[in-house]
Design a protein that fits this description.
By secondary structure, the protein is an alpha/beta fold. The chain has a domain of about 80 residues: 3-Layer(aba) Sandwich (Rossmann fold). It is about 25% helix and about 15% strand. The protein has a four-stranded mixed beta sheet, with helices on one face. The chain has a two-stranded parallel sheet with strand order 1-2. Helix 2 runs parallel beside helix 3. The longest helix has 11 residues.
Length: about 140
Amino acid sequence: MGLERNGGGQLHSIDLPQYQKAEKRLKGELSWSIPPGKDSGWAIPTRLKRDWDLRKGRSEDVLPGLLRQLPSVDLYCHDSPWTAGHLAFEFETIRPKLHPGSIVVADNTDVNPGAARTLARAFATKVRPRGTSSLIGIRIPSLG
């Protein structure tokens, strides 16, 4: 909806969908698994999909190729998977595409708090935590 409100832009998503095995989620299935007969983005209204580029696969496989196609990244949101190595991989991979004014938002950073600090230090800025949660933000400062 932000693209619609801003009157433009492009949203790129990478998803490795996890599908529910039954109409009702079974015990032990992930709370964010996709219902039978649906696919990634199923809850997004059609009118909002015009400027949305969905790529399926592991971000380790998809993200580098996507970034080669983009001049820069204005907003990056990391929400999974929640492993120390993966968080570090994504931050290191996006770093060359960030610019003054870019924003990085990430959840579950408690698995590797050093990855966020390393990214922030590369731009002489700070990690901004949201209260006591593991949700953080980093804003790349303007030059000068």
